[in-house]
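Risk register update: the risk of archive-format incompatibility is retired. Evidence:
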Amino acid sequence: MLVLLDNGHGGLVNGSYQTAGKRIDWGDEGIIYEGEFNRAIVNGIIEQLTKLKINYVNIAPEYRDVNLYTRVNRANKYANEDCFFLSVHSNAGGGEGSEVFTYYGETLSDQIATIWGEEYQKYFPDKPLRTDYLDGDLDKEANFYVLRKTLMPAILTENFFMDNYEEYSQILNASSGRDKIINYHINTILRVQKELF
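Archived output:
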């Protein structure tokens, strides 16, 4: 199995953030840049996958903000292999907890998303899993470009809210919180490999 990893948005280049918006300034408490967070999580996943000898491709290793078209084209080069696409993000807009998105319809993506939700709840049983059971499973469905255009199963994870101070300070900006986020993604990958591929 091959894991296609997508760290959403741009990172920091010489201290300059590469994506407009997608940041929360907590004043003396620091600034969180979503693209930096996404890269930290994906880099942690890569470190663990390397140790586990699970194949992966980092779809957007650059620190500039790689456009969605390029990300999808890079991923689709692997469409004939046993693979799935995992896009890592953090949320904003007022809320708490985490959620996972797939494209519309019932596909293997939904099964992967369900596994992710189960693993998330093991690590954060007291934090909400933001769900939509209208189609019978926990994922939310959306018309996101990277979900619509990829040619393999694909999920997009939204890990907590940057504009929720408790989640920022205790999870998103804390090494222990980031480690847990990495771990529930890794456990998802391990279960997907064992149960679905």
